[in-house]
Design a protein that fits this description.
By secondary structure, this protein is mainly α. 66% of the residues lie in helices and 7% in strands. The protein has six helices and two strands; from the N terminus they run H-H-H-H-H-E-E-H.
């Protein structure tokens, strides 16, 4: 009779204590990760490091521009795609869009170079 009374109560207390440990553990993990990650530095501490995008832009556009800016080479969409792990077709579409908005220029058929305007976008000075 006494065991029937105390065993369920003990089990509930054990489950409650376990849940508390889990919540505290997740809280410590989340706060440690949020204050040490690069995204935290960009968003909270130095939100100026985030470039404002135009409404027509895609996150892939930044990757294309950054790769084109990394050297004086004139890459093709295939070379860009290989280096940023996207399909050549998708990079080709976005490169054409970037050209339409003067962020890259077509040097030759299928070869693109970042423009001064594109460099200004990357530096955040637009």
């Amino acid at each position: 009779m006494i065991a029937e009374l105390f065993v369920p109560l003990t089990i509930h207390w054990a489950h409650g204590f376990g849940a508390l440990l889990i919540v505290v553990g997740f809280y410590r993990f989340a706060t440690a990760e949020s204050t040490t990650g690069r995204w935290f530095d960009l968003v909270v501490r130095d939100h100026g490091g985030i470039r404002p995008r135009e409404h027509w832009m895609h996150p892939l556009d930044d990757r294309i521009l950054e790769l084109c800016s990394a050297s004086d080479l004139v890459p093709t969409p295939a070379v860009i795609a290989y280096n940023i792990e996207y399909s050549r077709e998708e990079v080709n579409r976005r490169s054409s869009e970037l050209e339409r908005h003067s962020l890259v220029e077509r040097v030759d058929r299928g070869k693109y170079r970042i423009t001064r305007y594109g460099q200004q976008y990357l530096s955040g000075s637009l």
